[in-house]
Amino acid sequence: MFSGLGDKLQATLKKLRGKGKLTEKDISDAMREVRMALLEADVNLKVVRDFVNAVKERAIGADVLESLTPGQQIVKIVHEELMNLLGGSTSRIAIASKPPTVLMLVGLQGAGKTTQAGKLALSLRKSGRHPLLVACDVYRPAAIEQLQVLGRQLDIPVFSISGNQNPVQIAKQGKEEAMRQGRDLVIIDTAGRLHVDEKLMQELKDIKAAVMPHEILLVVDAMTGQDAVNVAESFNSTLGIDGVIVTKLDGDTRGGAALSIKAVTGKPIKFVGMGEKLDTLEVFHPDRMASRILGMGDVLSLIEKAEQAYDKKKAEELEKKMRTQSFTLEDFLDQLQQVRNMGPLDQVLGMIPGFAASKQLKDFQPDEKDLKHIEAIIYSMTLGERRKPEVIDGSRRKRIAAGSGTSVQDVNRLLKQFEQARKMMKGLSEMGKKGKNKFSF
Fold it and tell me: Is 281 in a helix, a strand, or coil?
């Protein structure tokens, strides 16, 4: 995600940070590199021009050139302008004062509307809503069945009318059904087309007039770059949208769509798809995304992911084991599995400040196979070996390697990693004790 753009921006800003004093020429040269990086990332030309001019205008001010740390000041300016470009502040779904809240998903065929409808329902259910999905795509083969399958997987009801080919009637009756069931959220999955056409837009206008949605959310594919921006512009000018869901952002190394949509349409990105699993739709935070692009990490998102993935009782037990230094290989495996629940490891590590822009992350290509090997090795040990790894001698290592389908070297590597983790736990525990003694009153 944004890897190409992030690398180039970070390299350019690193040069500026390395200089004790900056001249206007230094800034102009840097802005030229920033401009090229944004254009290569497929960002809209006008957006690039406005962004570079805004940064340059602020950067050549006396408060920057005459400051003690001009390089850091420019990093701050770029971060702020990048944040503004992405939308400034987080834009949430507008919840109706009188339920149900009606959300209408629109977009071209293949953008992933049906899947996003399910993901959105799951995401909003976590915040206490009771969603009803309404299947209005009567044209695409198996579209209704796809939504029904998602509904069963998520345990969320789906409203559809068998044999009815009128999406406007289905949407209207879906809203009425939600009111009868006491559902406070309706998500309407509409039909798409291969391209924007008059018939599609008229149908969407008719649905809009019939159900009066509180928000119309456009679903676009990040991988299509400027095409996604053009689609957003068309839908907004013809239908009027309230926000955008950008899918496949985790696979988009350029990021042109995400960086252009708000500036071109004036409409915020509200959610981003960060993977194929149904729980990978995330609220879009412009400030956090700007930090990640510039290699500053994203601690708040990391904490939120950890809170969702970690079992509170297990965390308390681990903290106790750290204090008593009774951390075992079973605990080590449990921690790896919980970290894996937070998402792809490279994404998780990318949220850690400092580590995000480090060479370690560039060289680190986490492989699901490695985690499976670790699991296999630990499961091939006896209960006593897991709890007291120091008893594992040469012959036991051979047996464990044979049982797990790995090599003795793999077993040795794991035991070494575990020992390092145990030492780190011990160090953290001792730091915690010192901190408590130092600051207790």
Answer: strand
In which order are the strands placed within the sheet that holds 131-135?
Answer: 158-159, 131-135, 185-189, 101-106, 215-221, 243-247, 269-273, 281-283
On whether both 255 and 231 belong to a single domain, the answer is yes
Residues 38 and 56 in one domain: yes
The residue segments making up the domain with residue 370 are 302-439
Residue 93 maps to a domain = no
| Cβ 74 vs Cβ 59: under 8 Å | yes
The encoded tokens of residue 201 equal: 């837009």
Q: Is the pLDDT of residue 253 over 90?
A: no
List pLDDT tens digits, range 201-218.
Answer: 999 999 999 999 999 999
Among 438, 108, 126, 54, smallest CA distance to 282 is for 126
Residue finishing a domain among 51, 85, 119: 85
Domain ends where: 296, 311, 331? 296
Give residue-wise pLDDT tens across range 29-55: 999 999 999 998 888 899 999 999 999
CB contact set of 279 (below 8 Å; sequence gap of 6+): 119, 122, 123
Reported as type and span, the H/E element at residue 340 is helix 329-340
Cβ(338)–Cβ(330) under 8 Å? no
Q: What is the pLDDT of residues 100-156, one digit of tens each?
A: 999 999 999 888 899 999 999 999 999 899 999 999 999 888 899 999 999 999 999
Three-class SS of residue 244?
A: strand
C-alpha separations of 382 from 329, 335, 378, 392, 407 in Å = 11, 19, 9, 10, 18
> What's the CATH code of the domain at 324?
1.10.260.30
d(CA 263, CA 144): 35
Residues 40 and 56 in one domain: yes
Provide the pLDDT confidence category of residue 276 given band limits of 50, 70 and 90. confident
Q: Are residues 325 and 426 in the same domain?
A: yes
The domain tally of the chain equals 3
pTM over 0.85: no
CB 31 within 8 A of CB 64: no
